[in-house]
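Mods, move this if it's the wrong board.
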Amino acid sequence: MVTRGFTGRRVDPETAARLPPGQHVTQDFPVLSATPTPQIDPGDWRFTLKHGSRPIASWSWLEFSQLPRTLWQGDIHCVTTWSRLDTTWEGVSIDDLLTAAAVGELTPFMLADCYGGYSTNVQTADLLNGKAMIATMFGGRPLSAQHGGPARLLVPHLYFWKSAKWCNGLKFTERDEAGFWELRGYHLRGDPWKEQRYSGDR
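Not the wrong board. C-alpha cells:
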C-alpha cells in the first residue's frame, strides 16, 4: 500500500498545476509489477476482444501492427505517488480497435487481461473518445518488456496501475469486475485528481 502525504522537492507553479494531489515529479520510469516479467515473442502474441467468454475479434502481432496508429503525449501518474511529465506513446487507440472489430453496442465496463494472469477493470467510458490505447511504443522506441512490452493498455488519465502491462485482451462485462489490485484494496476507478487510491476513497 502507498503511504499518504509523501512530498518531493518543490516545483514551479506551472508544474505544480499538472500534478494531482499527493504526487511528485520523477525523471525516471520506475518498474513496478504485480507478477514476474513475462518474455513474450511477438510471433506468439495475440490480442483478443471478448464479450464475457465469447471472442469477438482477434489479431496477431502482424495484423495488429497494420491497424491505424495513434500518437499520444502527456503526463502519467502512479498510485505510488510519482508522476512523469511529457511522455510520448504510440499504439492503436481503443476507438480504432473497436471500429476494426465492428463492435456494436458496448457494455458499461471492460476487464483488461494480460499475460502472467494480471487483470484490471476499467469503465468503458474511460477508454473511448481518444482516452486510451494499446501502446506498443514509448519515447519513439518499441515498448520494453519491463514496461509492459510488447503491448500494454494505456489509460493516462487514471492511476497507472490501470494501464495494464503485457495486455493481450479486453473483455466486455455487464458489471464492474475487480481486477488484481482492486481485489487487494485499491479503488475500482482510480482517478488521480480525486486521489482515488484505495477502496474507501470517494
